[in-house]
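Quarterly update from the structural biology core.
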Amino acid sequence: MVNLKGQHIYLRALEPEDLEFIYGIENDTALWSLSDTLTPYSRFNLRQYLENAQQDIFEAKQLRLAICIMDDTTIGLIDVFDFDVKNKRAGIGILIKDEAKRSKGYGKEALELLVSYCFKTLHLHQVYANISESNLASLKLFESNGFKKIGLKADWRFDGQQFSNEFMLQLINE
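Predicted structure, tokenized:
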């Protein structure tokens, strides 16, 4: 298995103690557009989610990991979703919660670790990401990790007032 520890961060399974961190993310309306969330989550529902978060990726078809800096502070989440064993592919999403922790290389390192895990441990052939055309920081992050834009989905997202485009990016394990 690949090591989920980098030089500045490490990835770990979710713990019950992550409840307030996840609650803060899932109920931050400014972040809802990133995940297609439309309603707030209760602590009760998130506690149930955390109790089931240890499900095997082959059963749940997804995996969410905490991104932690070396002093054990949780700074974000990184996800594998739409895990497709037959076609050997999955989607990846990432969020660094605190803006002050962004653009410091933590996201890049977390993405590198997760991609390595997907290719070396899960034996995936490809990973992909769906990123809003206006999310320049995420586009730069994924492209700097070797992802290529393979398509633009026109008018893909509606924010209640207007439609916006979304890129699909892909990285194939050569």
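The longest helix spans residues 106-120.
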